[in-house]
Specification:
This protein is mostly helical. The protein is built from four helices and no strands.
Amino acid sequence: MLKDYRDWLESELKLLGNASHHAYSFGQANMAKRALERLDAELARTLYVPLDRAESRRVLTALEALGQQATSLPPELETLREALKAALVEAGESSDL
């Protein structure tokens, strides 16, 4: 999905570059270029793992259960648990189990 978005931005940049004699097109091309730069920076430092909502909830439930059994999770799994909670909240779902 992000690759498709990046490809679309790049095609828009090329399209707008062809009409650069218009001030509006020049501004739009600059915005598309900045968007590409920001997306590339985000993709360079972030790993996206495609999990659907149901699977995300199952993984979060398993991490919560593991944390209760062991009284604490390793820091890496705690980070994953918090990231899943934040993603579910951002998606408009409650992360309460």
